[in-house]
Amino acid sequence: MRTAFCRPFVLLTLFAAASSAFAGQQGGPTAIAGKEKAWMLLSPKFVAEGECADMAWSHDGRFLLVNRTYMDVTPKFIQQSLSKSPNVTPPNYLGEVIVFSLETGKSRVIQKYDAAKTRYQGRWLGTGSSIFFVLTSNEDGMSSGYISSADGDLRKLNLGEDVNYVDFLSCPTRAEMAVNVHSVSKGMMLMRFNSTGPVGGPITTSSGSEPVGYLKNGNEILFSGYRKIALATPSDARVKRQEVYYEAVNVLTGATRISSKVEYQTLFEAEEPELSVDSKPVPVDAKLKPLTPALFRAGDEIALIAGDVTRAEPNRQMTGVAYCAQGMVFVRPMAEMPLAAYLEAKEAAERTAIISNAKQVATACMIYAADNDDQLPSNAGKWQDNLLPYLKNSKMMEGFVLSFKGGNMLKVEDPANTILGYIPGKGGRAVAYVDGHVKWIKNGP
Amino acid sequence: MVRRILVLGALLLASLATAQPRSQSSTNWILPFKETALFFLPAKFVSEGDIKEMLWSQDGKFLLVNRTSRAITREVLEAQFNPTPQPTGIPKLEGEILVWNLATSKTWSIKKYDASTTQATAQWLGNSNTLTFCLSRQKEAVAQLFTSTADGSVRELPPFTQCAETSIHPLKNSADAVLAMRSIEGNYSVRRFNASLQFGPELSQPREAFVRFIHDRDEAVLSPLVPIEEGKLQTKVASYRGVNVLTGKSRSLTIDQTEPPIAPPDADPAPKIISREMSVNMTGGATRVVMMQSEKESVLISGDATLALANDQLTAVAFQTQGVILVRPIARVPLILFERAKEEAEKTLLMERAKEVAKGFAIYAQDHHDTMLGAGSNWKAEMQPYMGTASLLDDFVLAFPGGVVSSLEKPSETVLGYFYGKSGRVAAYVDGSVRWIPNGK
Question: What ipTM was predicted for this assembly?
Answer without folding.
Answer: 0.70
